[in-house]
Amino acid sequence: MSVLVVGSTALDSIATPNAKNPRLLGGSASHAGVAASFFSPVTVVGVVGDDFPQRYIQLYQKHGIDLTGLQRIPGKTFHWSGEYEIDMNNRRTLATELGVFADFSPKLPPACQKTPYVLLANIAPSLQAHVLDQMRRPKFVVADTMDLWLNIALADLLKLIRRVDALVLNDSEARQLTGDPNVISALGKIHKLGPRYVIVKKGEHGSILSGPSGLFVAPAYPLLKVVDPTGAGDSFVGGMMGYLASQKGSIEKNLRRGMVYGSVVASFCCAGFGLKHTTKVTRADIEKRFRQLEKITRF
Amino acid sequence: MSVLVVGSTALDSIATPNAKNPRLLGGSASHAGVAASFFSPVTVVGVVGDDFPQRYIQLYQKHGIDLTGLQRIPGKTFHWSGEYEIDMNNRRTLATELGVFADFSPKLPPACQKTPYVLLANIAPSLQAHVLDQMRRPKFVVADTMDLWLNIALADLLKLIRRVDALVLNDSEARQLTGDPNVISALGKIHKLGPRYVIVKKGEHGSILSGPSGLFVAPAYPLLKVVDPTGAGDSFVGGMMGYLASQKGSIEKNLRRGMVYGSVVASFCCAGFGLKHTTKVTRADIEKRFRQLEKITRF
């Protein structure tokens, strides 16, 4: 089955102590869409300006991504600029230029409205809700979010998460949302806000799922070198959704393996700037790391 | 087989936002010794003053711990006092009174010198080395340490770790020791300092082993409530060593399960102040949580 991914489609300028990389292909929908495309057909819904490089369109197409939901309009593409320290856990935003994203209102082509798997990748919760309004009885809806929306659009976010099957957020966001410093007890509080599944991302420490059959603790793939973690969380949730859409049987049955596949795609994301490494990966590379994760977690 | 545990035997005064607990049984050797005692015979080597409560001696004895290596001398028992914030990851030391520990020089009774499993729990590396000097061909030697010794006794620590089979330290200490912000690549650098096995403790995020057959990523037991994490790291390494000493076959074969048993005992440690909860636990309780960890990490 196929996955609809809505989120940001951006140009990212990323600096580290060792390198500067201007105007990379970025944004939550780009990372999540490419990640999902290793497993299932993907439609990306987003907006870009007339400065958006044609080679990035070709990169989406190389991954078989359906672009009928990608609006191209006059103006500048959303541009994010950030800088990492030597310890990649520390990053600061240098600039956020919304461009054509400022007035974005996702409008789904009729053919997309019946997509069974819906990934509301990280954008404003009001836009995520607007997409959900246009969907017809999706099978599984996942929303990702970030601290920005907890800070400036909490009411919208709370309204949205009542309507999704799964909420994905990172550990500091789970603490912020619930006011609970303990992530495990925070999970229970987030279920009370609506979602049947809650997934907390912990970066290099892996992720935790809470659902009807209890907890699952998923490993991160151990990386000797992190080049650029931008988009790793988006890759995680994209890979997970792509895998889920590719499998028969219940969500319950497939979600654990989906998270591990998500970890694998996220690990490839971290190995290059932007999508540079992810877009060179094959499904065989992914299977190899999946088997390594099986091996290094067995006891 | 049996485990020799050398480390601190202390009285801990621990405050949290909700409670004050003066003069609990504490110290690295107390936590590690009790943890190991669930699996194997244990000898604790340490020193206490004449103020050391008899009920704590009885508590050791209830756990079958051999105390022939525990010196009782005139003076005050080592006393540590600390305070936790609501977020238990933040703690500060209020007082450290060495007492009889200031002049401690562990002297092993002859019967202890052939103990096959040696756990050099957290104390000054010069004392850990002094114990090792007295051992006769131990089968497996593990050293635990802490940031204090990296700061004030680095040369001693580097000398010691060349002589041990396994070094256990937490993630921030691994970064400090190697100057490498990436824990995975830090592991390789620590191997070059001597130990065949390196185990990095990451608290609520579990632990990582690096050894001859590669990496192992071990889960932490997810806790809804942490009452007092003091001694959790000591309990982890103690439980691990106790399990190893109880098993036939190679270290290589048993170490992964040993770490998971260590995680389980550490989780019980966190559920009460000092050793209050750990000392109420049964082997059946431990097996139950071990099976839960198997279940919540399977994919």
Helix content of chain A: 25-40%
CATH-derived architecture of chain A: 3-Layer(aba) Sandwich
- Secondary structure class of chain A reads alpha/beta
Work out the helix count of chain A.
10
Main sheet properties of chain A: 9 strands, mixed
Number of domains of chain A: 1
Defining key terms:
299 residues; alpha/beta; homodimer; globular; UDP-N-acetylmuramoyl-L-alanine:D-glutamate ligase; 4-stranded mixed β-sheet; 9-stranded mixed β-sheet
Task: Describe this entry's structure for a reader.
- The structure is a homodimer of 299-residue chains.
- Chain A has 299 residues and is α/β, with parallel strands linked by helices.
- Chain A has one domain (3-297): 3-Layer(aba) Sandwich (UDP-N-acetylmuramoyl-L-alanine:D-glutamate ligase), CATH 3.40.1190.
- Chain A has ten helices and 13 strands.
- Chain A has helices spanning 28-37, 54-62, 125-134, 147-152, 154-161, 171-178, 183-191, 232-246, 251-270, 283-297; strands at residues 3-6, 10-15, 20-26, 42-48, 70-72, 79-84, 91-97, 117-120, 140-144, 166-170, 197-201, 207-211, 214-218.
- In chain A, the strands form two sheets. The first copy, chain A, has a nine-stranded mixed β-sheet, sandwiched between helices. In chain A, strands 3-2-6-7 form a four-stranded mixed β-sheet.
- The radius of gyration of chain A is 18 Å and the shape is globular.
- Chains A and B meet through helix 7, strand 13, helix 9 and helix 10 of A and helix 7, strand 13, helix 9 and helix 10 of B.
List the helices and strands and how they pair.
The structure is a homodimer of 299-residue chains.
Chain A: E1 3-6, E2 10-15, E3 20-26, H1 28-37, E4 42-48, H2 54-62, E5 70-72, E6 79-84, E7 91-97, E8 117-120, H3 125-134, E9 140-144, H4 147-152, H5 154-161, E10 166-170, H6 171-178, H7 183-191, E11 197-201, E12 207-211, E13 214-218, H8 232-246, H9 251-270, H10 283-297
Parallel strand pairs in A: 1-4, 1-8, 2-6, 4-5, 8-9, 9-10, 10-11
Antiparallel strand pairs in A: 2-3, 6-7, 11-12, 12-13
